[in-house]
Amino acid sequence: SDVSSQTDKITYATSTTSRLPGSNLNNPMYGGMGMSSLVAMYAGGGPNVPGTNPNQTTVRKLTYSTGSWAVLPTALSGLKAEPKQSTQAVGDGVNFGYYFGGVNAMTGSPRTSYTQKYTFAYDTSERIPGANLSYDFYGATAAGNQEKAYVTGGNIGSSSSFSTNVSKFTYSDETMAGLPGLRLSDDKYKGTGEAAAANNQYIWYAGGSQTNPQGGALIGQTTVSRIDMSADTIQESLPSTQLTYPTFKHGGVDNGSDGYFAGGNSWNGPSPGGPYSSANKLTFSNGTMAATP
């Protein structure tokens, strides 16, 4: 199978990755969403082996202290859409996590505008109807700090229909607001499949896809852009901060001081590249990107 059940761990102090063979998922899966509290990581939705069970509502929990996964049947009660190709989830790390949009097979709609809330203490999820986004999408990116999150881009139609929208979600009152003055630049940037890492002030968006001048799709980018959450402004295509290889649908994590971008794929011609096992490290203090072989 081309779909994996493997779990890897990044050690920030040494910038090394190791496999956790005793922490494999109970079945292969891809394209779901992930989120983390201070004590556990959650993986939800997504297909598993292509052609079988194309969308899942399952939520799994990895407890950091034991390295063990568990399926959470109670988490399904409020889950209204399978978060296949949903956003990377965000949250305060202590009480709640949130994820947005995704592919939905339950209502016949191929995309959703849902905002869903996950309560860590009870391992339950529920929709927040008053915080829906203004458009349906999948494959967007979400990142933020402990007060708010920004949802950017996404696929809103065909393989080359990439959104440039940016919306802000505020945790304290659970409201979503579009930011029409803060948009991705479609000729420089990308609307789906990017990854993000953040500290308290900035979000860095790396890789992803964009629409080319001929109306097709450039699948896999090295571009890195940055949103300043204190001013709601964006710097696009930072020239000194680029990935070392073009990629999309990769992963992004951070520890407050550094961000890591790993894996992904590239469909740019003349022949596809990837899937990749490579990783890049972004040092937030000076904006430098370096391969971590």
Description:
The structure is a single chain. The chain contains no helices and 24 strands. A hairpin with a 3-residue loop joins strand 11 and strand 12 (about 150). The radius of gyration is 18 Å and the shape is globular. It has strands at about 10, 15-20, 35, 40-45, 60-65, 70, 90, 95-100, 110-120, 125, 140-145, 150, 165-170, 175-180, 195-200, 200-205, 210, 215-220, 225-230, 235, 250-255, 260, 280-285, 290. About 0% of the residues lie in helices and about 35% in strands. The strands form seven sheets. The protein has a four-stranded antiparallel beta sheet with strand order 3-4-5-6, with no helix packed on it. The two termini are about 25 Å apart. It is mainly beta.
Considering the chains and any ligands shown, give keywords for the structure.
4-stranded antiparallel sheet, mainly beta, 293 residues
Please describe the topology of this protein.
Blueprint: E1 8-11, E2 16-19, E3 33-36, E4 40-44, E5 59-63, E6 68-71, E7 90-91, E8 96-102, E9 112-119, E10 124-127, E11 141-144, E12 148-152, E13 166-170, E14 175-178, E15 195-198, E16 202-206, E17 209-211, E18 217-219, E19 224-228, E20 233-235, E21 251-254, E22 258-262, E23 279-283, E24 288-291
Antiparallel strand pairs: 1-2, 3-4, 4-5, 5-6, 7-8, 8-9, 9-10, 11-12, 12-13, 13-14, 15-16, 16-19, 17-18, 19-20, 21-22, 22-23, 23-24
Biggest pleated-sheet summary: 4 strands, antiparallel
- Total number of beta strands: 24
Class derived from helix and strand content: mainly beta
Number of helices: 0
N-to-C terminal Cα separation, in Å? 26 Å
Helix content bin: under 10%
Mass-distribution shape: globular
Low-confidence stretches: 77-82
As a whole number of angstroms, the C-alpha radius of gyration is 18 Å
SSE order in H/E notation? EEEEEEEEEEEEEEEEEEEEEEEE
Strand order of the largest sheet: 3-4-5-6
Q: What is the strand content?
A: 35-45%
Mean pLDDT: 80
